[in-house]
Design brief:
This is SnoaL-like domain-containing protein. The chain is built from one helix and three strands, in the order E-E-E-H. With 55 residues, it is an alpha+beta fold. The longest helix is centred in the C-terminal third of the chain and has 17 residues. The chain is flat.
Length: 55
């Protein structure tokens, strides 16, 4: 588990990445949890822009 925090366009973002690996060390699950809701919406919008731009 990795905790992170940052600010995106003036919005505070706090979250955790939860990574589960198998016996061979391969990632089998990767989960991201964030808060507050305003931060989730900001990340969602930015990801949409990046995907649309082909980045």
């Amino acid at each position: 588990m990795l905790e992170f925090e940052t600010t995106m366009n003036g919005t505070y973002v706090n979250g955790v990445d939860i990574v589960r690996c198998d016996d061979a060390g391969r990632i089998v699950e990767f989960r991201v949890m964030m808060r507050p809701l305003k931060a989730i919406n900001a990340v969602h919008e930015e990801m949409g822009r990046l995907l649309t731009a082909g980045a």
